[in-house]
Amino acid sequence: MNQRAMQTQPQAQQPARADATVRLTAAQAIVRYLAALRTEHGEPLFGGVFAIFGHGNVAGIGEALYRYREELPTYRAHNEQAMAHSAIAYAKAHMRRRMMAVTTSIGPGATNLVTAAALAHVNRLPVLLLPGDIFVSRAPDPVLQQVEDGHDGGVSANDALKAVSRYFDRIVHPAQLLSALPRAIRVLTDAALCGPVTLALPQDVQAMAYDYPASFFAPRVVEFHAPAPVPRDIERAAATLREAREPLIVSGGGVLYGLATDALRKFAHKHGIPVAETQAGKGALAWDDALNVGGIGVTGSSAANELAHASDGVLAVGTRLQDFTTGSNTLFTQARLVAINANSFDVLKQHAVAVEADAHAAIDALSEALGDWRASPQWTTRAHRLANEWRETVAHVTNTPVADGVLPREADVIGAVQRSDDASPQNDIVVCAAGTLPADLQKLWRTSAPGGYHVEYGYSCMGYEIAGGLGVKLARPEREVIVIVGDGSYLMMNSELASSVMLGAKLIVVLLDNRGFGCINRLQQACGGAPFNNLIDDCKQGAPGAPQIDFAMHARALGALSEHVANIGELQAAMQRARAADRSYLISIDTDPARPTEEGGWWWEVAVPEVSERAAVVVAREAYERAIRARSEDSR
User: Does the bond joining 142 to the residue before it have cis omega, within 30 degrees of 0?
Assistant: First the structure.
């Protein structure tokens, strides 16, 4: 991967005269600048702009996008949060090498971006947010949708985006774009800084004209930047690993975004080290690679977790080491930790021996420093055995027949979806986000290539699924994109199913209807709580009672093809029809809210009330306290 910073020189062409200028509005300047940027492969850096026009962006940005619609396509969506999710998913599907912008109105449109910005921030994914803002002149103050602050006249609703942006700027004069836009692009294309960028655009400034240097809009190649490894850090990391006989690699999203999957595979096999994958890192190794021991942590495989708890040295590459990965800091208690990460904030976690660097370059350098060193042969053999046993478990769990009259569970559906295309199942991209499904998908979904597993679990955001699927399909139109979603997430945000039909971006949506929030219902009871306010039957209801929702009919109302199936056999047949369809296709199936996949997994800390009148809560609290004590003893 190229280590240099973003280039600021135009591609080979006739240079503009030093004194040449072009008069544009601020909005036109933004759009023209973005349209001129190219990747190292010659593709447009920005695949387009998602836009919902309203007060504060329709006249300025809207006119500019129309003027440059051939150079930078505009996509209409139905919900601002959803379209930002689509833009984020587009960037993730491109391994952060291409991205999208999003523009909204000044009020609810702008604040609807906050959740999506937080998702991008947590997952270290680039998206450029261009919300409208109030008048800088304040002449018509207060304007429609303005949030007034009695203590600070400079505050607007867009200030809510500051906490969830990696870079924030409010453009109060058109000339400020000359510095703000290059800064924004650097953050979006820097491995260490990467995340959402917000440029708040007051509506009067959008419409202001300015004489910009013509050279500012010359086509530019954007090279992605990541720090190179420092030799002394590599030496320390190598020295730490050499002391280990039973090491484990934890592969995070940074391996995929650093285009380091081949480097990781070669490293693992050269040194005999098993590889466990995080949610973001799944797909770094093919599912049937001899050293792939499956997902790690709370939603991980029994193989990976057994090895993690026994390991004396963990190499964490490109991971945030969040609690699902570390088992709330109970998995790696016996191990010295070495961390490779481009982000200085992430690389310092868990008191690791830190290598702040690009994953690809650091893995290669570390392998060279280790020379012929290998893990203990017995450890590598144990990893091979456990990995094979886990693959056998996956095959059994996903292929066990469901008895007549018994509702299927998530594992049954996952197995049926993957069996539905024996010819080229590795062409599928699965998309999911929240609930029980990400746990079962991390354990059970088989993918052989980076990008085949697209699950947003850093923010675990319900409602991401269909919007994210749309972004993935726009990025990878040649692949079959399968969105697997629960009824709770579908009801929370489904409008971009209509957008997928409008754009000809076909999705296959497999909807599991367990009549409520089944995952949280189980967690509630595991903590001693009574079933309450999660499954629809356990919610407060009026006289008409709980609604009987026909999801297939709803999808048809949005323009998609759809059907409801009664069992796993019918699901497999419906998947064949969906694959052959010419537009988005939803299949709904009733599932059991009470039966999770018991195989795999690890402890996760969820605080249980210290005092309760319920005996079940008291019992759960005692178990919680025992687990806390065990963690403290293990960490000594």
Answer: yes
